[in-house]
Amino acid sequence: MLAAGLLLAGVSIPIVEAAEADPRGHGSTKPRAINWKPCPQDATAECGTLRLPVDRARPTGGTFDMAVARRKATDPDRRVGVLLVNPGGPGASGVAFAVDQAKSHFSPDIQERFDIVGFDPRGVGRSHPVKCSTELLSRQPSVHPRNQAEFDRLAEFNRALREDCRRHTGPLFDHADTLNVVRDMDALRGALGEEKINYFGHSYGTLIGEQYAEEYGDRIRTMALTANIDHSLGAREFLVSSAAAAEDSFHQFVKWCDRTSSCALHGRDVTAVWDRLLARADRGEIRDPHKPDRVLSAYEITFYAFKEKFYGPDWDELATYVAGLDAQEQNEPRRSAQPRQHRPPLPQAADEQTKAEPFYAVFCQDWRIRPKDHREYARLTQAELRAAPHMRGSPRVHAAVAGCIGWPDEVNNPQHRLHVTDAPKILMLHSRHDPANHFTWAANVHRQTRGTTVLLPYAGAGHSVYGRSACTRDAVDDYLTQLRTPSAGSECAPAGTH
Prior knowledge:
Elements: E1 6-8, E2 11-13, E3 15-17, E4 37-38, E5 46-53, E6 63-71, E7 81-86, H1 94-105, H2 108-113, E8 114-119, E9 131-133, H3 134-137, H4 148-169, H5 178-191, E10 197-202, H6 204-216, E11 220-226, H7 235-259, H8 270-282, E12 287-288, E13 291-295, H9 298-310, H10 315-326, E14 354-356, H11 359-366, H12 374-387, H13 395-402, E15 426-433, H14 439-448, E16 453-461, H15 470-482
Parallel strand pairs: 3-5, 7-8, 7-10, 10-11, 11-15, 15-16
Antiparallel strand pairs: 1-2, 4-5, 5-6, 6-8, 9-14, 12-13
């Protein structure tokens, strides 16, 4: 467990211990208020920590310190309340979002009327992060096993990595699921002295919101969710719909390039150029333009397009990137025999022996997706490839599912249909052409909570939604400030070009 003080950039952040709560967060005593201090990164924001139990079934056991940050309402006379925020991941820092991004993300009206409060979920950022051996992480085998032997090798690695992360992290590793985060968030509500909260969650942060509404619906004033997660999906539906979302974004890019003269690939068969590029990457013929001594794998190229350019979207830069790779001389000698297995960048840790790696600790405890052998995995992969032949499946979700192979079958927070009874109206926004979270996910969640949720589609592309247009921003602002929801059947039109 962490010591009694958390040191950030030389500034001691005070710790406040929350009153012990029952499973739904009912405390026997009133929680003490957090003793806020200026954040070391930005003194215009306030930081603190909240001490919470690692395992609520054993409240007298170990504790951890949840990091929180707040930007107070800039117009106290018009203050509505607190707005808790989570930017997704799993693994994104709510503290960093509140300190570094909230002022540019939210409109002046929201900043004037709400205390914007971000928190790092357990296992993430400054909240006792999940840590794993740097050396072991570097030895991850391919997430595309070709036979049972390679499947077994991947499962063995995942088991070894899980035990390594548990050893470096401690007991919190086994309690990093979203349902535990939801209970932590309600403890934060109590520590803030609020009877009801307002909540803004994006992407994986919507799962926190959805499950909070199940557990503590009567403690919500408003809840706005963008790029929604459907936590009722089985393995096949999850993989196939994720792949279909990535493939749809690729086709949106192709259509944009066909009609946009400034596109670096305009006038060419973009799909043919792309497929040929990936085939050349398979043969080791495409070099990293930033590191010419090594080659790029097809997986790295698709992941870059998906995460870096479809999310925005930033189709102009993607077209320039693809055109540049395609222009590389086909007969140049290879500089590296094998393209490396791509892994997204890992956050830096103070101890170089370990790195923060919360993703699988959260994901594999939230989803009961465990292919048992290569035959089952191959069937899932084939279905995924049929849904996304040009993107070769879902770059991120495929790796996520592969990372849970070999984990125990028991899951802390398994998938289920949402059952919300006490919550007020919840506003959902979702892009029709979201590259990561298929629009059907939002539609499914809306069907499961028909009497509680209002779904406002954004007809354009991209993963973020709130700041996409005046329509999307005003819909959220009006709802959070005035409790006004869009009329049934409303939709926000696509905004501008990309």
